[in-house]
Predict the structure.
Amino acid sequence: MSLRTLRATVAAGLLLGLTTGCSSLGYYAQSVGGHLKLLNAARPVPEVLTDPATPDTLKRRLVLSQRLRDYAVESLKLPDNASYRRYADLQRSAAVWNVAAAPELSLTLQTWCFPVVGCVAYRGYYDRDQAESYAAQLRASGVDAGVYPVPAYSTLGKLPGRYFADPLLNTFIQWPEGELARLIFHELAHQVAFAPDDTVFNESFATTVERLGTARWLAERGSPAARDAMALHASRRADFRALTVRYRERLSALYRSAAPDDDKRRGKAELLSEMRAEHAALKAGPWQGYTGYDGWFAQVNNASFGVLAAYTDLVPQFEQLLSEQGGDLPRFYAEVRRLAALPMDERRRTLQRDARLP
């Protein structure tokens, strides 16, 4: 599992160009340069489809992507714009690599603040070596840090014109049908509503939309094979979520306890070892050797748990809010935008109250 979305804009880099120190200038330079290279590599989907050099397998995936994109507008009422109407082959396995960090004995993610998008719980790099170097610096200071590949990110639909619209990428275009649908719907949801400084709110909302949209797509237009594949993947994801939530709760209780720090460190190591053993048992049993989560367990630390929480912690509240709106998506989106405009504390209280959850 990876942190899939980076709220980055070219505008953010340009705004800080004359106001930051050398290290910050270097970071924003790679952000702006990396994003522009990505955009320059993108071509309109019809052009790629008619190119004799385009493999048939890629053509089929691009056709599917455009069906999903149309469905997002027609059935999910997501933005109708140039996003995901172009395709770029980046010649690498990820769009960016995110660095996330948390204290040694806490699950609270460190945040970094930027113009336009506010404070977020990750820092993205277009070069993996730069991401690894920064994570190493964080670890040397005594915090838990990890590097996570990001297959796609959203610019929130804030930049004008087709050139700046988010493109389809080689990093995810070959994903199974259900997973491709999830990603496209998730990223488009970020264009509907965005709350600066509130990663959990933003990601949980997008996850709610992706789940609803994918379920509808597969039920209405998905092939039997796609539905079966998604059901299997959903079962494994549910197992993964149950396992990690259980250990996140145990770690949180340990860190909150009055035990000495050395005892907490030992307890942390024991819990992570137990969790890895349970993962190995899942692989050997019901997962039938599935290796999709191996990377996560190999580098698991406090930051890893914080990243997972960002995607799901408020999903029950959003799902209940959608139900309160009678399943009407435009009304639901309007409510989410209203909440996004509130201060964070008021936003959370209102979401809890409006969703009628305890």
User: Anything to note?
Assistant: The longest helix spans residues 224-256. The two ends are 30 Å apart (CA to CA).
